[in-house]
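Predict structure. Chain length: 287.
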Amino acid sequence: MEHLTVTANGADFHLVRTGRGKPLLLLHGWPEFWLTWEPVMARLSDRFTLIAPDLRGFGDSDKPDGPYGPDGHAADMLALMDRLGIDRFGVVGHDVGGAVMQPLARQAPGRLTGLFFFDFVYPGIGARMAAPDRLNHIWYQSFHQMEMAPALVGASREICRLYIGHFLTGWAHRKNAFDDVLDAFADNFLKEGNLSGGFAHYRASHAGRVAMMKGEAPRLPPIGVPTCVRWAEHDPLFPYAWTDRLSETFSALDLKMFPDVGHFPHREDPDRAAAEIAAFFQRVGWS
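Prediction complete.
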């Protein structure tokens, strides 16, 4: 695997590149960085060129000066692919990465061969995210907007490891999915600016999520790029029932349940995750 630093859209981005074949851009979620994709990359490198960046604010990429949301990340990724000399590519994303893929597909649909999503936020979830029985699941989204949050979580390595591990273990169905990298994840988020950099997504996304919950989000035309969604059977954060309105956002949708996993299908069952990704891009002629 090749580690690169690429300057694009006014910032330096760290990325990892490996493999050969048609390019796929892999977009991580929170609390993650490029390393979350390593098992999938190892399984796809004989068929695709895999490009896994740290989004702005994460990992070893530059940090934003304030709130930084999906529109900014999408512009970053288009500029990054320009600098790499890649015109057309497929995109795979999860969680925050899935939020980024939606404006990415609206900004440059002609450059994308296909969109492959694991569990993520989209407008059709609506008020369900803030239902009374969900409040204990989304508390962190408010906490991450507080000025004191980075200092509290980063007060010590033990506290940071406990906090990040709470989500990586609690949201997973296969509880050992991150055991081998938990220390690496804790050390990553302890790097200067990485806690506030990751929290910047929640600060930037707050108004849009409130509008979504109130039913006031602007209605946008559906995304026409071929789309595959494999949504976890046991995601405690985003239940599978919330997939019922995906066709309102994606007009060319292939949706199926991903069995026996929680919020992180790509880490919990990388064999199946890689197979699903490869099969989709083969179906759309990008393999």
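Summary: The longest helix spans residues 194-213.
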